[in-house]
Amino acid sequence: MGVSQRRVSKAVRIAKVTVGGTAPVVVQSMTKTDTRDIKATVRQIKELEECGCEIIRAAVPDKEAAEALAAIKRGISIPLVADIHFDYRLALAALEAEVDGLRLNPGNIGNAERVTAVVRAAKKRGVPIRIGVNAGSLPKKADPQATVPQRMVSAALEQVRLLESLDFDLIKISLKAFDVPTTIEAYRNIAAKVPYPLHLGITEAGTPRAGAIRSAVGLGILLSEGIGDTIRVSLTGHPREEVVAAYDILKSLNLREHGPTLVSCPTCGRVEVDLVGLAYAVEERLSKMTRPIKVAVMGCVVNGPGEARDADVGIACGKGRGVIFRKGEIVRTVEEKDFLEALMAEVERV
Amino acid sequence: MGVSQRRVSKAVRIAKVTVGGTAPVVVQSMTKTDTRDIKATVRQIKELEECGCEIIRAAVPDKEAAEALAAIKRGISIPLVADIHFDYRLALAALEAEVDGLRLNPGNIGNAERVTAVVRAAKKRGVPIRIGVNAGSLPKKADPQATVPQRMVSAALEQVRLLESLDFDLIKISLKAFDVPTTIEAYRNIAAKVPYPLHLGITEAGTPRAGAIRSAVGLGILLSEGIGDTIRVSLTGHPREEVVAAYDILKSLNLREHGPTLVSCPTCGRVEVDLVGLAYAVEERLSKMTRPIKVAVMGCVVNGPGEARDADVGIACGKGRGVIFRKGEIVRTVEEKDFLEALMAEVERV
Q: How confident is the model at residue A161 (pLDDT cuts 50, 70, 90)?
């Protein structure tokens, strides 16, 4: 039905969450607080847990941040991943602080000896490592003919081989770029070469408006091909928006259920009420609910119930009056002033 | 490079705009004003022309609306399509008003004689017809075993054969559903069966936030397979948002250039300035520009210029100071208070 069967990947456990194998695609995000500010970071992670974030990552810019991870971990319920750039000693310190996962950037983490030290320490604790390749910070060009996707895949494979040579297989891989076709080509390529679960993302995608669209195109294409075991939507904004967008992408391909889904017509010259205002109000009310229910807001009494017959509950609005329907069957007529409350009451009833 | 070669479709001209063939994917929208209100409708269309809308459609709920089309057409510069439901006589009246295109819904337009009358009139004027199938308003089930995508394709093919039997080939086809996998399957199926250009859309996708994501996933997947000659993003909101989202989808697959593109990092615990505020301010300023320029807003002086070296211009912000760069090369250091103005000045200079 439009979506390919999922690629079979190795299941990797990160604390209590499984990524890959037959596990559903996992939603993750990254904190935007100063990691050294334990209170603010824990508060942000608790907020993200509430909206469905399943793994959280925090930047570790220095030793103080690495040490803060232990206290942060005690305050939260989802697995905590330490994001390491440049200094492998920070990875060792994060492992000391008992983080649940590491992300290393092979473009800037340094030589094989340093990576080896980190891998040995991670292995001892059973902590998985994500090899997080970024198109913008690739290791120096070995082959002058190589394209960006090829270089991304090579950088990842080099690290994979190093980890495997150390008898370490708790591996996840990401290959992020801003350019969507580049990203797609890189992931398709690595998906065919290794068994490890893939973390999908489009890097520096932008603000919640344009960035969510860019991420939806890139991640949507890969997920529809069965590629991808965990996703992070990178947006310049509150991480809550990343989690909401991630679920919207997964829901649109029927890969996850998560809270209500709003079906709403775009309105046209036939509409005789403030449908946009109503749709926004309904979206706002639904955002506080967690049940997976499909709710329709339609601008046409004649077409509305039929066109939205997949919806569990809906309203079709005419001038002055509208109808509430369930699975396409009209259950009641309501006055315009009662549109919002009548619909929400019916939603509660389902 | 991640995106397949475009499906070869027949080129169909709608006034001065070509849809299909080797033409770029065309962006269209629909008015949300009362079509009978000529002034408001023309004003909205002029606004959409300014943000890049290339074809506009208007609902024709009654005879007065059909007659208004002539005056609307005189006030605008892009092709005008009449959207017809139920009453084939409104299609005839719209043709009298010299519209540039028709959209008929085979699910509710009535019997073959009525469609025939419309087709004959359209043929005389060289006006193309879009067969606009909607999953929610399909003709009665002929085959009880048929899936929704199969029924959508059957409904379209039946109309295609009728039009072809009348020696009419100025045909475009759309097969819209809310469910993305259903939509994808329907379009893939019809793309292999007929040579006509395809109009892509996800119907009743929702508000600009969730609806844009749903549309980006569905349209992005099809476009990446080379399917689709014109797109409309249906959103419950101002049609301007539909046009902006459509271009963001096309830009993310490098299928169209349109105005500036903002590359901005998601921020993390390493960031020491209000990067979100800066990114939003830059996005706002860029939204008024039409040149296709790539601008980066990065939160890290060390990684920023390199990670965003594809950007024509960018800023990488540290605490108190930042650097302005061009294609990854640092050109200047700036104080925090000057971040926005210094970046925009550099943008102007390119």
A: very high
* Chain B residues inside the 8 Å CB shell of A3: 181, 184
Nearest Cβ partner for B264 among A61, A207, A298? A207
Q: How far apart are CA B154 and CA B142, in angstroms?
A: 10
DSSP β-bridge partners for residue B322: B317, B334
pLDDT tens string A241-293 = 999 999 999 999 999 999 999 999 998 888 889 999 999 999 999 998 989 99
Q: Which residues pair with A13 in a beta bridge?
A: A18
| C-alpha triplet B332, B336, B339: angle, nearest 5° | 60
A269 touches A275 (CB < 8 A): no
Q: Is A248 on the interface with B (CB under 8 A)?
A: yes
CA distances for B272 relative to A32, B236, B317, B320, angstroms: 10, 37, 8, 9
Which member of A83, A254, A269 has the closest CB to residue B59? A269
| pLDDT-above-90 percentage for chain B | 86
Q: Do B204 and A61 touch (CB under 8 A)?
A: no
Spatial separation of the C-alpha atoms in residues B247 and A286, rounded to whole Å: 29
Summarize pLDDT for A299-325 with one digit per residue, the tens: 988 778 888 888 999 999 998 999 999
Q: Is B60 close to A296, i.e. CB distance below 8 A?
A: no
Residues 212-231 of A with CB under 8 A from B: 212-214, 216-218, 220-221, 224
